[in-house]
């Protein structure tokens, strides 16, 4: 079972990556409690920024980006975290999903999360990030995790759990979807896929 | 094995001095490049077909007819002929006409073209691209093979008792290659008919080229045209050479960095590593080109793109001298080594006529 974490944080260390790691830990803990031990890999988009731009202008991915795309495509569950830029996901975050096959995420459990300077941005997850993954036909877990600056230094209030509680809830939701998902089979080689697509094509 | 060049026919500013050739200069340069190809012993010249600026070659058979009159041996081809937006009736006529004028030194490579706005200029719709390629080619084949055609389809008016003239030279239709980069449907179309498949790999990694050619070879055999290794494969390539590889890199870098197709993206070093582009000494070009065989198996046609990225004509002609004198003779010798005797050569008018005579006897 493979859990892939995509972080679009730009600084080192970044709060986006910190949130991504905490979410991954929560999901892993829950899966471990169910006797599962997923492998985890983090895709840092900052390291792929040049490759993503080159892919956009050439049409093919450089090797390192290609490996990242393969990892995301083969994942049993995804955690994707973006900083909020100009009232939406960052351009780098969007560009990464722009260069992935639109069918690659179909049916995949995805936990969406974002970081920002103020909680006033928190609905970015609902009006920008969730529709993106809905378009990609991913299965997005109900709890979307927004961490504003203030969340890192405060607990919850009478209306909302604090960050640790929300992280745990989101991790549990992702783990439940991943555990319920049939074990993915080895992907078919490309030729087999092409041949199947061609089987319906008739010439003359 | 055949070696040659193909040209897109783009008008691109020379980034080192900003000069832009006029359309007339570019068209005349394409002709000069074709004549040079024959002079230095290459086998094939192929021109693109485009109907929008900054490209000039909208009328390939006009250009190829002119070149035919000024050459003796060169095979004249296209890269590509738009099977989607051209009326197949006109393709059948134009290329049969060219066959007669060029004494059979004609084949063509069909492609779809990929720019949406071009289609409606010819009354078509890019969303029907694959269907147009299928129907139009099926009709084109009949027009070349049947003297009188009754036909009805989706994309043009029906034909009743129609004879395309002139008939193909010696009753032998031009050999057809199907050019594609990404579409498995086109590899399938080539395999279905037992035609050639040209993978224009110049902007793509070898792994992708391998998969597309493997698919074509496997389907070629599936459709009963022979063994996978009997399939007819062509590849592209693009090179820039100087005696010393450092000189080649230094001279070509400003052209690479500003080229409309790959400029402002990856570095020259990354791009040469990930695609067939080779910038260096003639020996480096030889080594790189020979490695294509490891990717696709023994193949039939290798075309190089030489007049790209705004290079001046003088430089392109120098490149063709190096290609013809130092590179291709070695490639002919080395590709012949270890090539099984039963791997076919690319069909020519003479070989197809011979097959026809045998089957008629």
TrEMBL record, chain A:
<keyword id="KW-0285">Flavoprotein</keyword>
<dbReference type="GO" id="GO:0016491">
    <property type="term" value="F:oxidoreductase activity"/>
</dbReference>
<protein>
    <submittedName>
        <fullName>Oxidoreductase</fullName>
    </submittedName>
</protein>
<dbReference type="InterPro" id="IPR051814">
    <property type="entry name" value="NAD(P)H-dep_FMN_reductase"/>
</dbReference>
<dbReference type="InterPro" id="IPR005025">
    <property type="entry name" value="FMN_Rdtase-like_dom"/>
</dbReference>
<dbReference type="Pfam" id="PF03358">
    <property type="entry name" value="FMN_red"/>
</dbReference>
<feature type="domain" description="NADPH-dependent FMN reductase-like">
    <location>
        <begin position="1"/>
        <end position="152"/>
    </location>
</feature>
<keyword id="KW-0288">FMN</keyword>
<keyword id="KW-0560">Oxidoreductase</keyword>
<dbReference type="InterPro" id="IPR023932">
    <property type="entry name" value="CE1759_FMN_reduct"/>
</dbReference>
<dbReference type="InterPro" id="IPR029039">
    <property type="entry name" value="Flavoprotein-like_sf"/>
</dbReference>
TrEMBL record, chain B:
<dbReference type="GO" id="GO:0005829">
    <property type="term" value="C:cytosol"/>
</dbReference>
<dbReference type="Pfam" id="PF00296">
    <property type="entry name" value="Bac_luciferase"/>
</dbReference>
<dbReference type="InterPro" id="IPR036661">
    <property type="entry name" value="Luciferase-like_sf"/>
</dbReference>
<protein>
    <submittedName>
        <fullName>Oxidoreductase</fullName>
    </submittedName>
</protein>
<keyword id="KW-0560">Oxidoreductase</keyword>
<dbReference type="GO" id="GO:0016705">
    <property type="term" value="F:oxidoreductase activity, acting on paired donors, with incorporation or reduction of molecular oxygen"/>
</dbReference>
<feature type="domain" description="Luciferase-like">
    <location>
        <begin position="1"/>
        <end position="297"/>
    </location>
</feature>
<dbReference type="InterPro" id="IPR023934">
    <property type="entry name" value="LLM_FMN-dep_put"/>
</dbReference>
<dbReference type="InterPro" id="IPR011251">
    <property type="entry name" value="Luciferase-like_dom"/>
</dbReference>
<dbReference type="InterPro" id="IPR050766">
    <property type="entry name" value="Bact_Lucif_Oxidored"/>
</dbReference>
<dbReference type="GO" id="GO:0004497">
    <property type="term" value="F:monooxygenase activity"/>
</dbReference>
<keyword id="KW-0503">Monooxygenase</keyword>
